[in-house]
Amino acid sequence: MIKAMRQLALCTLLTAACLPLWSANETTNPEDVIKKFAAKEADFAQARSNYTYRQTVKIQELDAGGSPGGQYEIVEDIIFSPEGKRMEKVVRAPMSTLRNIQLTPEDEQDLRNVQPFVLTTSEIPDYDIRYLGLQNADEIPCYVFAVKPKKMVQGKRYFEGQIWVDDRDLQIVKTYGKGVGLLKKGSDNQFPKFETYREQVDGKYWFPTYTKADDTLHFQSGPQRIRMTVKYEDYKKYEGRSVIKYGDVLDENAPKKPEQKK
């Protein structure tokens, strides 16, 4: 994410990680749970691709005492053109005052695909998935899994960390981890740990609503602490004629409650 300058770090205080995992129910079949939630995630991915929403990204450099310095912020509406094409419209983008870090293409991929992580049936073969047990996420009983890529392909970003799957709706309601991928030799990119929360929208799907990170990235030039928040708000179902398929390319010309955490 931030190359030689420094990368976006999305670190998070994983408060839930401090809670004890319950013993897995003897009747729990992890493979069956994985199969079912992956199918639900595929439905969710398709559904979200037909919603508009506003995404606000804010990244701050913090000094040794934790006070904010340079800042990057962008507010975008994910909308549809009159022709039904999915696109990003910049609402507000003040001039960046970051001095030590800069966003890279890998960071852009993480913001778009890794932080609002989706694990569908077609993506299951790409990951090693290990069942950890049962744990509440904001009082929601969940199955918890450790996830990491089996093999990484150049140019593609992956998620590595833990996911919390609602034991009733069988959808991911929280993720904690970081974006990973193959980097060019000698690259000084660093990627932060982040925590993403989802919230139920229209009484059916759990959509990402908040990502947070507070991490120290260790670059060759020295450590840099950063704080990042991403808000996904005002979801509205698109009622146009066109149905946009998950994974469609966004407009290249353009320059997201479990309860929100603070």
Q: What can you see in these coordinates?
A:
The chain has a 10-stranded antiparallel β-sheet with strand order 3-2-1-10-9-8-7-6-5-4. The longest helix is centred in the N-terminal third of the chain and has 19 residues. It contains 2 helices and 10 strands; from the N terminus they run αβββαβββββββ. It has 262 residues and is mainly beta. It is 11% helix and 42% strand.
Sum this structure up briefly:
With 262 residues, the protein is mostly beta strands. The chain has 2 helices and 10 strands, in the order αβββαβββββββ. The radius of gyration is 18 Å and the shape is globular.
Write the layout of secondary structure elements.
Blueprint lengths: L29 H19 L2 E12 L5 E13 L5 E7 L12 H10 L12 E11 L2 E10 L8 E9 L5 E9 L12 E9 L3 E15 L2 E16 L25
Antiparallel strand pairs: 1-2, 1-10, 2-3, 4-5, 5-6, 6-7, 7-8, 8-9, 9-10
Alpha-carbon distance between the two ends: 24 Å
SSE ordering: HEEEHEEEEEEE
Strand segment tally: 10
Please tell me what the overall shape is.
globular
- For the report, how would you describe the main beta sheet? 10 strands, antiparallel
Helix content: 10-25%
Individual helix count? 2
Beta-strand percentage?
35-45%
Radius of gyration: 18 Å
Structural class: mainly beta
Provide the residue-averaged pLDDT: 85
> Which residues sit in consecutive blocks of at least 5 with pLDDT less than 50?
3-26, 242-262
